[in-house]
Amino acid sequence: MSTDLSKIQTLLVDADLNTRRILRAMLARLGMEKVLDHGTLAEAAGSPSTIDLVILDADQADGAAFRWIHAIRHGLTTLNPFVGAIIMTWNPTQQLMIRFASSGADDILVKPYSPKQVHDRLLNLVENRKKFVVTSDYIGPDRRRSPREGQVVQLIDVPNPLRLKCTGEFERVNIHELTAQAVQIIDSEKVIRHGFQVAFLVEFALPGLAMQPPEKRAMDHALRVTGVLEDLERRLPPGELRVEATHHIRRMEGLIHALKTRGGLAGKDLEQLRQDAHALMGLTSRVDDAEKRVHEVMAAVTGYRSRLEQLTLAKAAPEAAAMATASPGPAA
């Protein structure tokens, strides 16, 4: 094989010992001898930051593998956030593929796989790795076939440890500096996306929160704001922006905590929540026109409500048809 994979350090995690042995043998035939293997994610948790590639079994029922990849991409583990990531599965169900797409993993191997399939996945990661995109809840390869109309999403070139190792460039670059630069770009994008997401979640939830008692779906969406605020604050750069944004974050956190503990908020508190959400978006957005920002958020809320209604109707249609089939016809 023309591509030298010998310098790549791989982390392999699979509960089945035989699967690990077989895959290690496949990797060895490709020249990849630097392989750490573990049976559980708990054992792999302290893996060194020098790992270039993660190959991970994703058939645990609780979705832990996908959460771990998501954590890697969001800089919450010891691993390089741009490590190559391949998942393995025996059963690529629709639900599993949705989790795969939202985790930030690069590729998927369906068991049983051949040495050629393993080789092709690795070669694709080295030569054709997709650029990364950032949303409020996603960091990873750009999987869009076509962006939504009017949507602008920055494509980010991130360091590819596999390519650097295979081309011999790794020793000639400062991987830590490259990683830090890419993380800074991602943090900036995350701050913008989080600011929009906070305003979106609040605007979506407000009508339902004004009901007595508050609508459950509205409560669920409002409570999601806390996690977004936490990650937003973590990524804010030091300086005036951070000071001003933190003021709104703290007040929103207090209001959402009150919402959770009391089971509702007074009208003035709901309005304060809305004001803080839009003020935070104003601080973090690239759009200077406040009216345009509000329009974009409300358009997103309207589109989201429409999709939810379509899903509800699609789910109800088979049930209605089944009931009609089961009901006796009119008497003759």
Automatic annotation (TrEMBL):
Query: What's in the keyword line of the UniProt record?
Result: DNA-binding, Phosphoprotein, Transcription, Transcription regulation, Two-component regulatory system
Q: Which GO terms describe its molecular function?
A: phosphorelay response regulator activity; transcription cis-regulatory region binding
Which PROSITE patterns did the record assign?
RESPONSE_REGULATORY
What InterPro entries does the database record attribute to this sequence? CheY-like_superfamily, Sig_transdc_resp-reg_receiver, WalR-like
Q: Which residues form a coiled coil?
A: none
Indicate yes or no for the key word Phosphoprotein. yes
Domain Response regulatory residues, every copy = 9-126
Gene Ontology cellular component terms for the protein in this record: cytosol; protein-DNA complex
Q: Which residues carry this modification: 4-aspartylphosphate?
A: 57
- GO biological-process terms attached to the record: regulation of DNA-templated transcription
The entry's protein name is DNA-binding response OmpR family regulator
